[in-house]
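Re: beginner question about structure tokens

> Can someone show what the tokenized structure looks like for a real chain? I only ever see the sequence side.

Sure, here's an example I had lying around. Input first:
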Amino acid sequence: MVGLAACSAPAPEAPAPVTMTPTVDPSRGAPPAPDVPTVWPLTGVEVDEVPERPAVAVKVENTATARPQSGLDQADVVWETIVEFEVSRLVAVFHSQVPQEVGPIRSVRPMDPLIVAPLNGLIAYSGGQPGILAEVQSSGVQSLSHDEGTGGMFRVSGRSAPHNVYGSVETFMAAADAEHAASPEEQFAFARSAEKASAVVDGSAATTLSLRLSAQASPSWAWDGATGTWQRSEGTVASLASGGDRLSAVNVVAITAPHPNSPYGAQGGAAVPTYDLVGEGPAVVATGGSTVEGRWTKEAIDAPLQLVDADGDPLLLAPGNTWVELVPEGKGSLTVG
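And the corresponding structure tokens:
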């Protein structure tokens, strides 16, 4: 007897996938491109086109003998620092405006590379100690020194040495080599308008900023609603540009940082101080008649100093110029009124 093998029925075929072709209403079209305006990188002010030119930082004297200085009213950013003998000196950064002259120009200090390295531009100064010069030259910026015969620096007849070295920012910009000729990257975060700046949106009303940076430097700022700016004074004396205009700022930023002595000495054995600016610390931003507290952070010498709130989000400045007050930790103070 022959056995019969059982046969199973074939499995049903899986249904073929159905491809759906979405239909798009032709009247809707593609989403609009985001409206991102072109702005000057150091001020956030709108401009049709940013010219390809470098930022130039200039070391400017700030003693009574040096005032009124030239060019400060056209700087995008001014940094105020304390050097030896508790004297204030300024680092004025130019990019969107090019003053006819700037000065008096003085020598570099060890905190200057920390300030200017993120710009990848040029720094102009009268001279400096060999060790400090080496730090400047190794920071990645292009160095322009009066002592080395840099073009564009000259002595004026109306002031006595060493308070009479001035310079041409236009000539400095033209001296940029291929590695330093590009426009700088944005250094601070800017709102689209003054009304959207962080201090205006989230801050508290303020009319005065009184700083004590040292026994020799007590700048103050008063809010002027008519011009929409903070107006500067040296103590109680109004600060003026050489042309007679009041020095003012759309944003005033006070950062508190350690202010240790550097390895370098000055006349009579006095120590030359510097700032520890790689790290973080407290910050106060004043814009639009208001102030807001936050933090500053800086990851490396060549990284921009950033301003953030308690959640780590950027503090937005208003479009316009900025003065940065470097308050020595444990020695300086800021009083908001």
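Each token stands for a local structural state, so reading them left to right follows the chain. The longest helix spans residues 130-137.
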